[in-house]
Design a protein that fits this description.
The structure holds three protein chains of three kinds. By secondary structure, chain B is mainly α. Chain B is built from 14 helices and no strands. In chain C, helix 3 runs antiparallel to helix 8, helix 4 packs across helix 6 and helix 6 packs across helix 8. Chain C is globular. The chains are: A alpha/beta, B mainly alpha, C mainly alpha.
Chain lengths: 385, 289, 274
Amino acid sequence: MSKNSDKQITSKELMHQLWRYKRGSITRREFLGVTGLGMATAVLGTAIPSLIPQKSWASELGDRLVFSTWPNYWNQANLDEFTADTGVNIQVNAFGSNEEMLAKLQAGGTGWDVFVPTNYTISNYVELDLIQELDLSRIPNYDASANNPKFAGPAMVNGKVYCVPKNWGTTGFIVNSNKITSGPKSWKDFFDVTKGEGSGHTIVHDYQLTTIGAALCALGHSFNSIDPNELAEAEAVLIDAKPHLFAITSDYQPGMRSGDAWMSICWNGDATQLHNDLPEMQYVIASDGGEIWTDFYAIPVGAPHLDAAYAFLDYMQDPAVQARDAEAHGYAPTDSRAIALQPEALATDPILHPAEELMNGLEFGAAQTLTDPNRAELIARFKSA
Amino acid sequence: MAIREHVRLSGWRTAALLAPATLWFLIMLIMPLIVILIFSFGERAAVGGYGGGFTFEQYANLPARLKAFQNTLTYAPLGTLMSLVVAYPLAYFLALKVDRRFKLFLLVLVVVPFWTSLLIRTYAWIYILGGRGIPAILEWVGIEGVRLINTPTAVLIGIVYGYLPLMVFPIYVSLEKLDKRLLEASSDLGGSPVKTFLQITLPLSMPGIATGCMLVFILLMGEFLIPAFLGGGKVFFIGNAMVDLFLQSRNWPFGSAVAVSLVVIMLITVSIYMRLAMRNKTGADQSLM
Amino acid sequence: MRIYATVVYLFLYIPIGLIVLFSFNAGRHASELRGLSIQWYGKALSNPFVGDAFFTSLEIACIVAILSSLMGTAAALALQRMSGPLRILLDGLIYISIMIPGIVIGIATLVALVTVFDFLNPLLASLWPQGYTPPKLHMGYASVIAAHTLFTMSLVIIMVRARIAGMDRTLIEASMDLYASPWRTFYQVTLPQIYPAILAGFLLSFTFSFDDFIISFFVAGPNTTLPVYIFASIRRGITPEVNAIGTMVLVGSLSLLIIAQFFMRGDRRRARVS
């Protein structure tokens, strides 16, 4: 592959060469040689970039990758660089909950190549045969030893590795301190403020893990509880709060940013993003409990662009890429090499890396919490009420 | 009658003409309906999906979604009525008061918004009804704390907005056919404009009203986008409940039960409606257009 | 009256105006206007997934329109000569397929097809000769086309039937008396009379299929149609790119309308002259 084919000829240069050709200064062959590849590219390339000749191994990877992830969870610059390097265009789908991803995968035929499951779903996916065992030799950038086993552990099921870690995070709530001045510190406070000061301006998530979990913690129970009595109490709390809610959604950033919502169940990375733009946004890890979680990259069974998927996974495991990603989405990587590359401010940011004692009350989501039919029906009843 | 016999298509030709359509109905209508009927009597598998079995528990559980049914059965007729109230004067204006040269143009102008995706149009309302839109304007004027977005009101506004063209068209069509001389005659005979309207215009435009209302109502019963966008996850129609059951709870049997009940409700309401509204027997002309 | 009409038109167009306005947003968030720029149009046009989604929608809509016009007309012709229980049954099916909410069709079709495929795929795999990869049935183009056609075909049947009912029968009878074959009768007598209804049905089917979101959302599988893509964009975090797409669709439809107007006026003028 010649060097020229990487370079696009500008229209100015084209016209210059054309003029030279017309004058006879260069032969037709020279003209075509200089402008030949560039001609078509110049005309079409600026308008339709996918027609620009890509690196040679693009044909092996295919031209696209379908990537299902969560809202505000990626750095577009990273994706663009991947596309520029490999010629693979990335189609991003955003989902607000693991339940929805699971539902789509169960229905089949999604055409996804890479998706982002949370720790408590991995064993379920393996059981349902929806996720592929990973060939780690194709992901050389992944260094298992550099990843904190507390977070990366769930990637291995029955001795096989099914995913690679993306980042970890906590679930708490975010408060617009300009509007809500009472300084809520716990889930109990959260629901009290919802019915009081923050009435009409609070958001809860639309899936069962965090919303029911928050209500359970407010009552002093475990975040992951599937005990029917405790669940019934939690349901009462939620139904009680519902008229005071602004919205039930996992995409809470637009509401918070526009000022329509003053408080929301929140993941800490979104909190970082919001706090950076609007300093009055305060993130609170509730004193009565909450969630700590790890997200992974995984490849579903039947992924149509397997080679591109592996290339993407490998790319995203590069510590430099991870650090850049973290810059954009604000979550802490599990990979120590990536943390080392982070700027001082991020590496010590209290939202991303909270103090140990604050995290004591946080629980990892449990596999059976995902599949418990009572919890599923509870949240559906709550939303429907 | 003899001639009719003579021109009757031979049996196999009729069958051949009918075959593709019948096959389609069989595979794409009857089969899916049977499948969800079967599923609705089943049990949810442990991880979600269909788990076999035969039970009435899904139907017994329907009252858990009572609010959704209530919402739909309240807001569908209400939305239809409101669309009618907003659409009728406009259709009247277009059919009877507008100069012939501008009629087509103005009519098309009503339909054009339909050509932008409903998704985007509804999303624009999120902005208008949200904190930076109308409430901001109202605050400027001094009225504080008005909450419009994520309320049933917002959903109603979205409904009227989305279905207005659909309601205007049939009413316009039937008003257009009105013989203006009838109106002249009425006023000549000393009838007030109100009386003319009530006794002549309104009854004669009934077919249009009936068609428009039925169209809008049918579509509203299955609505899910507008409550999803403008209701903020708080306002559930039957459609939302169904989607949630399939895409969140992964409770296929219960979702199927909700689907079956929706179909049954629609069958009942539409037949009642048709019996009431189709009292004037212009059967063949009473196509949905 | 006029004031009322103006208010209603404003009501209709202010959201559209906002959409168009924000499509020129120089800022990144669709909810805050930060200066003007046409960058989003460039992004939308150069986004391969937008083009993909658009052409997928277009292809599907064309096929749906053709299929439903053909099958619908055939069925309408056959139906109007039938009577008895079969006719009643088919009438019922037609009305049910119109009346059933799109969401039920979408979900039911998804559930049914997934179940059927789950059953058929292993079967096919076991029956297929060794060494060849068996075909794998899955949701995609075919399922979307099939689901759309169900509804649009019924639309066509209703419209064509209404037209046939209002048709002049004597011409057909005369043609039969003169020993014309049924095909000729159809082609030279019936068809010219009913073709406006077929054309209207074709256009309506195309529009419905192109704009449909609910059914496509459930049954499209890995394929994306334009409305599904727009929905995914809204979920992804709405950037003005979506506004740009919406504006372009609007302008495109308007242009089609104006062009159609031109042609029709040309025809009319020609008709007047001749």
